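Regression test case RT-17, inverse folding.

Input:
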């Protein structure tokens, strides 16, 4: 997972809505949640593939960053990628 997503954190929604307001429009809706909680970064490919075509991934990522989601794939980012994003913004 060397590829780091091009994310403009400043352009993300400042006050993202909680997932229950948008998850039914997400590309991952109805997919086994285990896909989005891979054991390793290397196994995140299937989850990232769903995210790559999702129309609300910015909202999802903004929610994850704002709420400190430590686990899983959110908004087309892995756990490590979100940690790096957080460090770069802090």
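Golden output:
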């Amino acid at each position: 997972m060397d590829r780091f997503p091009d994310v403009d954190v400043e352009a993300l929604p400042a006050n993202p809505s909680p997932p229950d307001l948008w998850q039914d429009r997400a590309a991952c809706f109805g997919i086994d949640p285990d896909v989005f909680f891979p054991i390793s970064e290397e196994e995140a490919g299937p989850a990232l593939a769903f995210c790559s075509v999702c129309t609300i991934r910015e909202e999802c990522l903004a929610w994850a960053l704002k709420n400190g989601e430590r686990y899983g794939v959110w908004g087309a980012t892995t756990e490590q990628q979100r940690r790096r994003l957080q460090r770069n913004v802090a």
